[in-house]
Amino acid sequence: MESDPKYVGYEEFLFIAPDPGVALLVKKQLEGLAAGKGGEVLKEMATEVLTGRIGLREAMQVSAYEQELATNIDKFQSHWDNLSSEERSQAQAAADRFLGDLRQEATEV
């Protein structure tokens, strides 16, 4: 996979996620946010982080970004809590497969 030249590489996130697959996951999640998946505030935050204008740790200290992330995490938690145990097991299995694929991808980059 060729990365966008204007964005930092997944290696930028190894300080918070020493597992290359998890670091790549962080980068991909930020790319999704930069594409607008989390609304305008998180789009701005992700773009700032991915372009290297601000570090992820610094971004987490900006109250507007922190509040928006907390809101989205609460929504996810609510959704997760409403899943059946079978749905949670299926989601966990899919997540495990996806992380395995990302680990493979990270070794190929």
How many strands, which pairing sense, and closed or not: the largest β-sheet? none
Gyration radius, in Å:
15 Å
Fraction in helix: 55-70%
Shape: flat
What does this structure look like?
This protein has 109 residues and is an all-alpha fold. It contains five helices and no strands. The radius of gyration is 15 Å and the shape is flat. The termini are close together.
Gist of the model:
By secondary structure, the protein is mainly α.
Chart the SSEs and their pairings.
Elements lengths: L19 H15 L5 H11 L5 H4 L3 H19 L3 H24 L1
Keyword list:
109 residues; 5 helices; flat
